[in-house]
Specification:
Layout: H1 3-15, H2 20-32, H3 37-47
């Protein structure tokens, strides 16, 4: 993730009231998680309900 993207995400989450630990866990998840095709399909299907 580009540095400016990460900075913008952190700024917005801080504005929303997220604490540092929660932000760090979220950023780590974004950078390391690779969803399976099944996981992506399930999320997309749930969004259409």
């Amino acid at each position: 993730m580009p540095k400016n993207e990460a900075s913008n995400i952190i700024i917005k989450l801080k504005q929303e009231g997220w604490d540092d630990a929660k932000i760090n866990a979220f950023i780590l998840y974004i950078q390391t998680h690779t969803p399976t095709e099944e996981e992506a399909r399930t999320i997309i299907e749930q969004a259409h309900l």
